[in-house]
Design brief:
By secondary structure, the chain is α+β, with helices and mostly antiparallel strands. The protein contains four helices and nine strands; from the N terminus they run ββββαββββαβαα. Helices cover about 25% and strands about 40% of the residues. The radius of gyration is 17 Å and the shape is elongated. The model is unreliable at about 1-10 (pLDDT under 50).
């Protein structure tokens, strides 16, 4: 029982309060015990306000809904701010986590989000509308989400660079 990503109109993308949540992956684990198999579930969720704030969470429980709730709770605690320029990212950036690598390239208006399901859920939750992406290495959704967050953490606006360097850029 795994959801490979985001589906339009499905129950795996809901709005709780001001945040929109996307269930990226649900894993089922079976432990063999005396009476048979005991299943447990782990869920990865991406949460964002579609206005520059996004976070991810990973929750485990004996049923699917509690695991998703735990993941959402963790995601709302670990929110980060993403710089957005003209509904896109300020510059090209590469992120990696484990064997997964993600390249994010800014795109012009009207391009949309050209990305796979895992990366798309992060970018949509952050509120980025126009971006080109390419993933290299592992296609594990959990690793791709973490690699995308690594890339988003490296983004800087022109004003931030000017302050850091102490110069004015034309």
């Amino acid at each position: 029982m795994s959801t490979g990503g985001r589906k339009r109109g499905a129950e795996d993308d809901q709005t709780r309060g001001a945040y929109k949540e996307f269930v990226v992956k649900i894993k089922r684990c079976a432990a063999v015990v005396k009476g048979g198999r005991r299943f447990s579930f782990a869920g990865m969720v991406v949460v964002g306000d579609e206005n520059g704030r996004v976070g991810w969470g990973y929750g485990k429980a004996n049923e699917v809904p509690p695991s998703v709730e735990k993941a959402v709770k963790q995601a709302t605690r670990s929110m980060m701010v993403v710089p957005i320029v003209d509904e896109s990212i300020p510059h090209q950036v590469k992120g990696h986590f484990g064997a997964a690598k993600v390249l994010l390239v800014p795109a012009g208006p009207g391009t949309g989000i050209i990305a796979g399901a895992a990366v798309r859920s992060v970018l949509e939750a952050a509120g980025i509308r126009n971006v080109l992406t390419k993933s290299f290495g592992s296609n594990n959704p959990v690793l791709l989400v973490k690699a995308t967050f690594d890339a988003l953490e490296q983004l800087r606006t022109k004003q931030e660079i000017e302050v850091l360097r102490g110069v004015t850029l034309s």
